[in-house]
Amino acid sequence: MPKAKGKSRRHKYSYNLNRKRLYRSARRRAAPRIACSHIRHAWDPHKSVAQNLAEMGLAEDPNKAVPIPKKLSVSGMEVESDGQQLGKKIVRKPYVVNEMELEASLPEKKSNTLSRDLIDYVRYMIQNHGENYKEMARDEKNYYQDTPKQIKRKINVYKNFYPEEYKNFIASLKPEKMEVQ
Predict the structure, then answer these.
(1) Domain chopping of the chain, boundaries
(2) Distances (CA, A) of 124 to 65, 66, 120, 133, 145
(3) HSE on the CB side for 12, CA within 13 Å?
């Protein structure tokens, strides 16, 4: 099968093409990546970043938003000058800041949990051996061959994560031991 014509021909480099300008214009058109959903919904792509943030009541530059007062010396005394803002901007979208403050005031969810296997392991060990960690280390259910200190640490982690559940579990074990005696 013959080769396609023109494929093996050397391509000429175009010296007149300004590649930097093409790259810059493509970058300039891209919208900024916004992480906060409240800002993303209120964003106007036809306005600049400074205009959008000013309408929402947010600061573009934190150094300009909260200026450090300069100290002036007048007849030996130091007097603080007030940072005057030239041309206050009208906040047209105050709901953005209100929603962000509301979201920030919500309490954090406790996302740390223990695996069900670890919980079952710790409960089994406490149920069968009580506080005897050396006996726990020799138990056949100790698959990972934990040392007595490692088992004690796992039990303490369980106590810290689920203090109420641990108290209820220990309380449920005491009647069983009384019946045995």
Answers:
(1) 19-66+87-105, 116-173
(2) 59, 58, 6, 13, 15
(3) 4
Lookup: tokens for 121: 């392991």
pLDDT digits (tens, 9 = 90+) for 59-102: 888 888 888 877 765 555 544 444 444 456 688 898 999 999 99
Distance from C-alpha of 105 to C-alpha of 99, rounded to nearest angstrom = 10
- The residues pairing with 71 across neighbouring beta strands, listed in sequence order, are 80
Q: E strands along 7-163, which residues?
A: 71-74, 77-80
Q: What is the pTM of this model?
A: 0.43
DSSP 5: T
Q: E strand or H helix at 98, and its extent?
A: helix 94-105
Rounded to whole angstroms, the Cα distance separating 121 from 167 reads: 17
